[in-house]
Design goal:
Blueprint lengths: L2 H11 L23 E7 L6 H16 L4 E2 L2 E9 L4 H13 L4 E4 L3 H14 L3 E3 L13 E3 L4 H15 L6 E6 L4 H12 L11 E3 L11 H7 L6 E4 L3 H12 L6 E4 L6 H6 L7 E4 L8 H14 L5 H20 L5 H8 L5 E3 L2 E5 L5 E13 L2 E13 L1
Parallel strand pairs: 1-3, 1-4, 4-5, 5-6, 7-8, 7-9, 9-10, 10-11
Antiparallel strand pairs: 2-3, 11-14, 12-13, 13-14, 14-15
Length: about 400
């Protein structure tokens, strides 16, 4: 972001101190005559993950709004496609966008979709900057980058924390949906907690993996998991599934709940209300982080959408940010292959989550934070407690 644009943002948002981390001044570069580029945005447009997809769309669009609808100086045509909820629907979305000549792809919420489109993206040699789904099996690919996380990191961050916090006579019940991402979360959690620690020795209770559960979907599995009378529950759900799981769990268990932060992100808190109080989560972002980039981002996001930004919106905003920088590096006539190579040349990213950078597996090396759901006036909020670890 150049100095002139930063000053425009300050004037528009009423934000002060936005000086550091604005990047180099590119005012002198002729960008007015640069050709338009097409970017394909893949998100679920219906079902239990729709709210996450909406956040991803909003985050990417906000970056465009703050940068004159341009990336790397090029006017952007943002094309959208519905990923659906299966590998087949995800592949159809990618195929449709590739036929329209996109320079790059972004988005993707569901890990099963991300795994299913891997080969299509690699064969097309078009970069995909994923802003949510990030199973560990994607770490050897060349054209897929992630601005979110790798799922085992959320487990690792909480495993390290709970290993020291849980009493010696405590016991944790682990409850997970039977999907692509859950084994990553469990592996990371056990790796840091200690796989042979008696406090987590019980088998994982796996539940239905539906993204649109009913009012009794999890009841029998919860009863089974609670049979050994755990002192705490560690779980992994998001969106509509998180709402139903917590409601059904709270009918039978009043103790501490720990999870990757997706459990309490976005509209989940609005639907859970008091049932969410006290839940502690680990995540790579909190809307109340006190850094310049987050003050600008969160202020602009609240002003435009009238809600607090989520990690999904933040990661999508950063996906636009890294595309902006990579396209700028390619010069005036970018190709997908040039953009992909340029992504590998990016250094530190000044992000609302704090400074991060891509590591060798093309995922962020970043900080993870502990948050707790507390009441903020009439609403529930994920309040930042402390920093847990730097992972990646």
């Amino acid at each position: 972001m150049n100095r002139r644009r930063a000053l425009q943002l300050l004037a528009a948002l009423g934000t002060t101190g936005f000086v550091a981390g604005c990047g180099s001044d590119s005012d002198a570069e002729p960008t007015a005559d640069r050709n338009p580029v097409k970017i394909g945005l893949i998100t679920p447009q219906a079902g239990g993950f729709k709210s996450i997809g909406d956040d991803i769309t909003n985050g990417f669009q906000l970056f465009l709004d703050l940068h004159d609808q341009r990336l790397g100086g090029h006017p952007v045509e943002l094309l959208t496609a519905d990923e659906g909820d299966t590998a087949k629907t995800g592949k159809a979305a990618v195929d449709g966008l590739l036929k329209q000549g996109v320079l790059a792809l972004t988005g993707v919420v569901n890990s099963a979709v991300m795994v299913g489109i891997r080969d299509t993206v690699e064969q097309a040699r078009v970069p995909l900057i994923g802003s949510n789904a990030s199973p560990s099996s994607l770490q050897s690919v060349f054209y897929i980058w992630r601005t979110s996380y790798v799922l085992d990191e959320a487990g690792r961050a909480l495993g390290r924390y709970l290993r020291d916090q849980l009493p010696a006579n405590g016991r944790i019940a682990i409850i997970m949906p039977e999907n692509v991402g859950s084994p990553d979360v469990v592996r990371g959690f056990r790796q840091e907690f200690g796989a042979n620690d008696p406090r987590i020795r019980d088998e994982v209770t796996y539940t239905n993996a539906t993204s649109s559960p009913g009012k009794t979907t999890y009841s029998s599995d919860i009863t089974r998991a609670l049979a050994k009378k755990p002192t705490a529950v560690f779980c992994f759900f998001a969106g509509a599934a998180a709402v139903e799981f917590i409601k059904q769990l709270r009918e039978k268990f009043a103790g501490p709940i720990y999870a990757p932060g997706f459990l309490t992100e976005g509209t989940v808190l609005e639907n859970l209300k008091d049932n969410a109080l006290g839940i502690q989560t680990a995540l790579n972002y909190s809307a109340d982080l006190n850094n310049t980039s987050n003050r600008v981002f969160a202020s602009a996001y609240r002003k435009k959408y009238q809600v607090t930004p989520t990690t999904y919106a933040m990661a999508s905003y950063d996906a636009a940010q890294v595309l902006d920088q990579a396209i700028q590096l390619t010069g005036g006539k970018p190709s997908p292959q040039q953009v992909n190579l340029a992504l590998g040349k990016l250094g530190q990213i000044d992000s609302p989550r704090g400074i991060w950078q891509f590591n060798q597996p093309r995922t962020p090396q970043q900080k993870w934070y502990l948050r707790e759901v507390q009441r903020d006036g009439q609403v529930m909020s994920n309040v930042l407690i402390n920093e847990l670890a730097t992972l990646g």
